[in-house]
């Protein structure tokens, strides 16, 4: 078990071995999760998002809808440009 100290600003130091293991660098984003009396720091890395892909079981439906919406917005913008 590794321990750390909380500063007066509420900051902690993550030990360097753990930072290296999880790819945490200056500017890295972490998700802070509270779970049954525990505080969990989850690095928001590319791997994290790749592992989360498909979790909602939408079978690509959401992506298709977003792409269609983007295509429609782009067509509207182009139509405005042509009218002017």
Descriptive account of the structure:
There is one protein chain. The protein is of the alpha+beta class and 84 residues long. It has 2 domains: 1-44, Pemi-like Protein 1, Chain: D, CATH 2.10.260.10; 54-84. It is 44% helix and 14% strand. The protein has 3 helices and 2 strands, in the order H-E-E-H-H. It has helices spanning 16-22, 46-52, 61-83; strands at 30-35, 38-43. The protein has a two-stranded antiparallel ribbon with strand order 1-2. It is elongated, with a radius of gyration of 21 Å. The chain starts with 15 loop residues before the first helix and ends with a helix.
In short:
This protein is an alpha+beta fold and 84 residues long.
Ordered list of secondary-structure elements with their pairings:
Blueprint: H1 16-22, E1 30-35, E2 38-43, H2 46-52, H3 61-83
Antiparallel strand pairs: 1-2
Considering the chains and any ligands shown, give keywords for the structure:
3 helices, alpha+beta, Pemi-like Protein 1, Chain: D, elongated, 84 residues, 14% strand, 2 domains
Q: Strand-and-helix sequence, N→C? A: HEEHH
Give the tally of β-strands: 2
Domain count: 2
Radius of gyration over all CA atoms, rounded: 21 Å
Number of helices: 3
Helix content: 40-55%
Unreliable runs: none
End-to-end separation: 67 Å
Structural class: alpha+beta
CATH architecture call of the largest domain: Ribbon
Global shape: elongated
Please give the CATH class of the largest domain: Mainly Beta
Strand order of the largest sheet: 1-2
Task: Describe the largest sheet.
Answer: 2 strands, antiparallel
- CATH-derived topology of the largest domain: Pemi-like Protein 1, Chain: D
